[in-house]
């Protein structure tokens, strides 16, 4: 328990963030094997650490099922939001206190994102569609116009296009959908497969996108989503939950999913190699690359917590959060 929830570590990291620290690794979990001191509640929710640390701090309620999190980057880690099984929870003091800002109509929220230039505007998604607030979560409105297929409201990922203001993309059970007016209206994308699980945009070239699917493998677009091609050279699996670019060398990518271990591509997703040395769980639900050190790659498993590679994904070792059913790993860079 001492390695998981340490008051001293929490104070140091909060002070570091408040002073404008550079990077924080966040991990969201649906369950772990740890219990809260003096209670029978599972210590599950939002964990964090600075790269290079071995101990994990913990935020929020001890029995939370947290699917994803986000931070308003200019706040230096003070303004945070979580997508949880009970709705959206927000913090304005670096995670010391939290408030549920959604009501009974929003449950099993899977995705949360801040608008890049407005801390009061957030986007959220769930099995029931897409939601938006422009007043710090005081009111949320559903925007499902155009999500006419019954499976289209089951949203699994949301990406804000870095190059086109107002353009959003979501992955759903019915495939990809796009909006050009900040989520007010939606239309079907051109990727003609269903059960899309993850979607990512190239960190430097906004024309390049990759998508991971259930049962259909990986797809790549090099013209802003107008056309998609399957990119499965070297891949032996069909279900992928996570794709991560190396921010420093974006021709390097990692992908993971059901019983896949970790696949790595060094040519922008054209060809892939599988690596699993040291992984005691091959179910990988989330991946993240340290933007300051490309050798450090994090993988979140669906039963055995976090794994860390310090040689660019070639070998792995367990990195804590025992028994963790990890849903999302995110490394946020707070500029000084």
List the helices and strands and how they pair.
Elements: H1 7-18, E1 23-29, E2 46-49, E3 57-59, E4 66-71, E5 80-84, E6 87-91, E7 99-100, E8 111-115, E9 118-126, E10 129-133, E11 141-142, E12 155-160, E13 168-172, E14 175-179, E15 187-188, E16 196-201, E17 209-213, E18 218-221, E19 229-230, E20 240-245, E21 253-257, E22 262-265, E23 273-275, E24 284-289, E25 297-301, E26 306-309, E27 317-318, E28 326-333
Structural account:
Residues 1-20 have low confidence and may be disordered. The chain contains 1 helix and 28 strands. It has a single domain, classed as Methylamine Dehydrogenase, Chain H (7 Propeller). The strands form 7 sheets. It has a 4-stranded antiparallel beta sheet, covered by helices on one side. Strands 4-5-6-7 form a 4-stranded antiparallel beta sheet, with no helix packed on it. The chain is mainly beta. It has one helix at 7-18, and strands at 23-29, 46-49, 57-59, 66-71, 80-84, 87-91, 99-100, 111-115, 118-126, 129-133, 141-142, 155-160, 168-172, 175-179, 187-188, 196-201, 209-213, 218-221, 229-230, 240-245, 253-257, 262-265, 273-275, 284-289, 297-301, 306-309, 317-318, 326-333. It is globular, with a radius of gyration of 19 Å. 49% of the residues are buried.
């Amino acid at each position: 328990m001492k390695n998981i929830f340490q008051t001293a570590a929490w104070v140091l990291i909060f002070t570091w963030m408040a002073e404008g620290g550079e990077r924080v690794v966040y991990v969201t979990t649906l369950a772990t094997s740890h219990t809260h001191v003096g209670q029978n509640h599972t210590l599950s929710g939002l964990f964090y650490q600075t790269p290079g640390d071995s101990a994990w701090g913990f935020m929020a309620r001890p029995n939370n099922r947290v699917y994803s999190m986000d931070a308003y980057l200019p706040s230096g880690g003070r303004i945070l939001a979580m997508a949880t099984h009970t709705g959206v929870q927000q913090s304005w003091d670096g995670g010391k206190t939290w408030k549920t800002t959604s009501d009974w109509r929003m449950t099993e929220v899977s995705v949360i994102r801040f608008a890049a230039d407005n801390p009061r505007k957030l986007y959220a998604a769930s099995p029931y569609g897409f939601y938006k607030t422009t007043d710090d979560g005081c009111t949320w409105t559903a925007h499902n116009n155009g999500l006419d297929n019954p499976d289209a409201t089951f949203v699994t990922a949301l990406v804000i296009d870095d190059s086109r203001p107002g353009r959003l993309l979501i992955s759903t059970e019915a495939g990809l959908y796009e909006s050009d007016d900040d989520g007010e209206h939606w239309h079907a994308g051109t990727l003609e497969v269903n059960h899309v699980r993850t979607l990512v945009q190239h960190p430097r070239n906004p024309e390049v996108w990759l998508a991971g699917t259930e049962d259909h493998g990986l797809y790549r677009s090099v013209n802003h989503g107008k056309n998609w091609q399957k990119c499965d050279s070297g891949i032996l699996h069909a279900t992928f939950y996570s794709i991560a670019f190396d921010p420093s060398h974006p021709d390097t990518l990692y992908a993971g999913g059901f019983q896949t271990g970790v696949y790595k591509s060094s040519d922008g997703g054209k060809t892939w190699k599988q690596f699993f040395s040291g992984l005691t769980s091959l179910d990988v639900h989330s991946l993240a690359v340290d933007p300051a050190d490309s050798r450090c790659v994090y993988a979140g498993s669906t039963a055995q917590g976090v794994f860390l590679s310090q040689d660019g994904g070639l070998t792995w070792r367990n990195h804590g959060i025992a028994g963790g059913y990890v849903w999302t790993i995110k490394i946020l860079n707070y500029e000084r």
